[in-house]
What does this fold into?
Amino acid sequence: MRSLSHTGYRKGCYYAFVYGALICLLVIFLLPLLWVLGLSLKTREQIFTTPPLFLWWPTMENYFAVLSEGNFLVSFWNSFLVTTSTVLVSLFAGIPAAYTIARFRFPGRKLIFFSLLIMRMLPPIAALLPLYVMFSLVGLNSSRTGLILAYTTFSLPVIVWVTRDFFKSVPRDLEEAAYMDGASRTGAFLKIALPLAKPGITTAAILSLLLAWNDFIFAAILTNNATRTSPVLLSTYAGSETGTDWGAIAASGILVLLPVIVFSLIVQRHLVPGLSSGAINDARIP
Amino acid sequence: MRHHDRQHGSATTPSSQGVRPRNYLVQIAKLADFCFIPFTTLPTIVLSAAVFGVPLLLSLIMSFVAWSIDQPVSEAQFVGLRNYRDLFADRVFVASLWLTLGYTSATVSLEILIGLAIALLLNLDLPFIRIFRTALIVPMMVTPIVAALCWKLLLDPTYGLVDYLIGSPVIWLGDPTLALITVGGVNVWQNAPFVALLILAGLQSVPKEIMEAARIDGATKTALFRHITLPLLSPYLLVAMLLRIIFEFRAFDNVYVMTAGGPANATLVLSIYVYHTSFFSFDLTLASAASWIMLLIVLTVSLLLIAAIRQKEPD
It folds into this structure.
């Protein structure tokens, strides 16, 4: 009996320790964001009190202020437009290539794949400077089209890697059966492989969507006041010395995060395998 | 080529023996199939050449010429390695290079260590553990600019939460030594969860039977970890390291928002250096040389790590 209660006691200690550590984790990783959410729901006086207020009646005035001022909505619309177009363009260009790379051996196959790998590895600032010069020459600077093109430097490799992985995992038999029935390659690709690779295409689309939405460096250089995305608008708050309107900063930050977080939580099972699959695959390039 | 020959043979033979018009269709299909590989890969090739190949070539050329932005392109003159020599004679660049290497190795090692610790904790089979795993996704997906802004508010010496909690007004971002640590710390905060979730995926791929068998043979917990878990985990650790090195080496967003490279160049990482040189001093040739140095470093380190990962996973 004694030994039993002893192990029970030890088990209790163990649970207390483990859950204590887990709760510490939650506090460290979520409290900062929750605190800023709190700031966004405070009035100006409530934000600048010492000691800080921990209980208050939330106000939406910061959100009304941010949304009634044109700048934020324009940047949000730009972000939305650029992000979705980037994903569509990269899906359209990348999926057929991914399929061909997964299914056929042809000269230049390794070269394409290796270039995409390097595209993903290289620091964006290195491509940005020449892109800026080129876009100035052809008049694409400060345009959303230019930004969408620039975003394909990271979204195209992600799309090709992730979908290629899925095409490889789809058994070849079905396509071969279709060839037996006289189907062309195009037919086999569109009618058989594409529907089967849907989960992979979803993962790829989600990843490039998040990457494009979160990007700052490309947009900071390639846009102007009319075409800037939300992260660029937000960064202007950080620099200005008049940027003491914490309520507005917090509220617009939360508004930018909200879609990302809700979306990430919905699609969470795609995220980690997707983000790492690229790298694990590269290591396996023949 | 072998595969598609086989597929082709099986596709044509049965139908070419059939009715005549069908044979005609097969010819069209054959033509489409002949063009299939170029057609499907062309958009990707054109797009990546336009947004990546040509720009890189342009910056390579720019790094070997003397040219300023107000001159016509025709006046650019080949000067060999002079830009690179100027670069390494620039004390700010050399300091920035060392700073970036130090920053990258420190943040990546911390992310891996903390990530591993969190992953081991999250791997325990406990009630409600899923809630904790899900919660970690949030900081990982937060827009880096927003994360940096949030921390700027939290670390404010007068009204910030952090200084209130520790009870003394620390100037996190204004002090040269502390600023780099703070900026790196925010990055670790944001990215350790990703490393943790990646390692967690690795931990869950360790077969339970092996662990059970070793435990029955009397292996201690540390022995289990050292001789079974760690070797099986090493490809995941290397992948995490590869990805994090690539992304920490290009650090820009949070530095830009939190310190903009200051105070006194204390957080001037290479990306910020190139950014300043190109878009404030407009010294495009020097900036191109600097970005090629960055490219070569990332490429070397990544290829070495990829070779190491490939060795671990003989396929």
User: Anything to note?
Assistant: Residues 82-312 of chain B form a domain with the MetI-like fold fold (CATH 1.10.3720.10). The CA atoms of residues 108 and 190 of chain B lie 12 Å apart. The longest strand of chain B covers residues 65-66. Confidence is low (pLDDT under 50) at residues 1-19 of chain B.
